[in-house]
From TrEMBL:
PANTHER family the UniProt entry points to: MUREIN DD-ENDOPEPTIDASE MEPH-RELATED (PTHR47053:SF1)
Biased composition (Pro residues): 229-253, 266-281, 289-300
Protein name: NlpC/P60 domain-containing protein
Biased composition (Basic and acidic residues): 334-356, 369-386, 437-456
Domain NlpC/P60 residue range list: 548-672
Low complexity compositional bias, start-end: 321-333, 357-368, 387-401, 409-424, 457-508
Family named by the database record: Belongs to the peptidase C40 family.
UniProt source species: uncultured Rubrobacteraceae bacterium
Keyword list, A-Z: Coiled coil, Hydrolase, Protease, Signal, Thiol protease
Amino acid sequence: MPRRASLVMFLGFAVALVFVTGISAGAAQEGGVKAKEAEVASAQDRLMEIRLETSSAQAAYNNALYEMNQLTGQIAQATEDLDAAKKRLARAEDELEERASQVYKSGNVAFMDVLVGVDNFSEFATRLDLWVRLLGEERAKVEAVEDAKDELAARKRDLVDQRTQRVDAVDRAISQKERAEEAEREAEAYLGSLNAELREALQAKQNRQAEAALAAAEEFKAQKNTKPAPAPQPVPAPAEPTPAPDEPAPVPEEPTRVPDESAPVPAEPAPVPDKPAPAPAEPKRAPDEPAPVPEEPAPVPEIQVTEVKQVPVEQPDLQDEQAAADRAAAAEAAARRAERLAEQRAAERQAAREAAEQAAAEQAAAERAAAREARQDAKAEAERQAELAAQRAAERQAAQEAAEREAELAAQRAAAERAAAQQAADEREAAMLAAQRRAEHQEERQAAQEAAEREAAAAAEAAASAQAAEEDASASAAAAEEAQAAQEAAEQQEAEASASASAAAQEETTANKPPEEETTGSASASASASASASASASAAPVGGGGASGSGSSVIAEGQQYLGTPYVLGGTESCVPYEMMDCSCFTMTVYSAFGIALPDSPGGQMGYGSPVSGAPMAGDLLFWSEDGSGYITHVGIAMGDGTAIHASTYTGNVTQGTPIDSIPGYAGARRLL
C-alpha cells in the first residue's frame, strides 16, 4: 500500500509537471507569435507612412521641375526681348549721335541752316524749334529704350534668381525622394523578413499542434483497442480489490479535464493511459500476499464468490471505457480544432496573400494612373509650351514687322527731311538769285531812269533852243519874208531832227529794257502801251483767250519770286518780292501774261478750262486741304508732277513740291 500510494503520487506529479510545461511552452509560443504580428503591423504602418512621404516628395519634385521649366522659358523670352532692346538702343544711339554730329558740320540739316537763309526772326525761331524738337524726340527715344533695357535686365536677373531657387528646390526634392525610396525599400525588406519569420513561427506552431493532435489520436485509438482484462481469480479478499477501483478513480478524472483546460495543446493527454495500468495488476499480486487463503475451508471461497458477485466487478472496465471514450472524444475534438485552426490559418494566409496581391494591384494601378496623369500633364504642358512658343514667335514677328514699319517710316521721314532741307537750300539759292536779279533790275531801272532824265534834259535843251530860235525869229519879225521862210524851214528841219532823235532814244531804251519790266508796266513804259495792255487784259475771256505765253514762260515767271516770304492776307499784303500768299503769287504771275485773276483760291477756280488728264506746265492747281470741298490753296503745275506755290509749310514761295503730298487735291484749270 505505501508503495502504491507513492507510485500514484509520483505519477500524478509527473502528469502535473508535463501539463504545466506544455501550457508554458504553448503560452510562450503564442506570445512570440503575437509579438511578431504586432511588429509586422507596426512595420506595415510605417511602410504606409513612408509611401505617403514618397508620394509627397514626388509631387514636390514634379511641381519644382514644372516651375523651373516655366522660369527657363521666361528667361529665354526675357533674353530675346533684352537682345532686341539692345539692338534698338544701339540704333537709337547711332541716330542720335549722327543727328548731334550734324550740329557742328555743314549739311542739309546742320545748325548753320538754322541761321543762314532765313528772311526774318519768325522763320529762324520756327526752324530752331523744329531742330530742338527733333533732337528732343531722338533723346526721348534713346532714354525710353535705355529704360526698357534696364527693366528687361532686372527682370532677367530676378528670373535667374528664381530659377536658382527652383533648382535648389528640385535638388532638395530629389534628395528627399531618394531618401523616401531608400526608406521604403528598407521597410519593405524589413517587413518581408518579419513576414517570413512570422510565417515560419506560425507554420512551426501549426506543425507542432498537428503532430501533437495526430499522436494523441493514435495513442487514444491504440489504448481504446487494447482494453485491460478482468481479474481471473476472484479469490482475494474483498477489502483489497475494493480500494483498487477507488484509488485509480481520481486518475482518469484528471485526464478528462486536461484536454478541456489545455485545448490549444492536445498532445498532453498522451501519458494518461499509463496511470490506470497498475490498477488491474493489483489482483495479480493479491495471491502473493494472502498465501494461506487457499488452505482455508470451502466456505471461504463461497463467501468470496458471493462478495465478488455483489461487488460491481465490471465497474472499473466501464469507467476505463468511459475515460477512454472521453479521451478519444477529446482527442477527436482537439484534432478537429487543430484541423479547423490549420484551415483558419490557411484561409488567413490565403486572405493575406489576396490582400497583398490586391494591395500590390492597387499600388500598380495607382502608379500607372499617376504615370498616365504625369504623361498627360507633360503632354498638356508641352502643348502649352508649344502654344506659348508660337505666341511668342508671333509676337516677335509682329514686333519685327512693327520695327520694320517704324524703320521704314523713319527712313521716309528722314528722306522727307532731307528733301525738305534740299528744297530749302534750293529755295535759298533761288532767293539769292532772285535777290541778285532784283538788284540787277533795280540797277537797270535806275539806268533807264537816268537815261530818261538825260533824254528829258536833251528835249528840254532842244525846246529851249527852239524857244530861243522862236524868240530870235519873233525879234527879227521885221526881217524879210525870205528870212522868215528860211527860219520856218529851219524850224521844221529841227522838229523833224528832234522827233527822229526822240524815236531813236525810245528804241534804245526799249532794246535795253529786261522782259519783266515789259510785263510789270514800269514807269519807263509809255502811258499808251499800259493803257492798251490793261484794255486787252480786261477784255480777255475767262478761258484765257487773248493772252499770250507758254507753260515754260509761266514757270520762269513764277521762279522769279522763289524765296519770297509767305504772309497770309488780302491785297494789302500782296507785295511782289516782299510778301505773298498762294493766291497773290498766282495772280501776280498770270498778270504778266495779261490775265487778271482775283486774290482768292476759290475765285481763281472759275477761270480757264478744266484739265482732264495730268496737269501740264502752267496749269493752275487747286486743293481743299480740310476736305470740306472749299478751295483753300492754289499753285502752278511744273509739268513733272510737282508744283510751284507759296507754301505755308516752308513759309515762302517754293517749287518741286509733289502734288500728292498736299492733302485734298481738287483738280486743275488751264488758262493758256
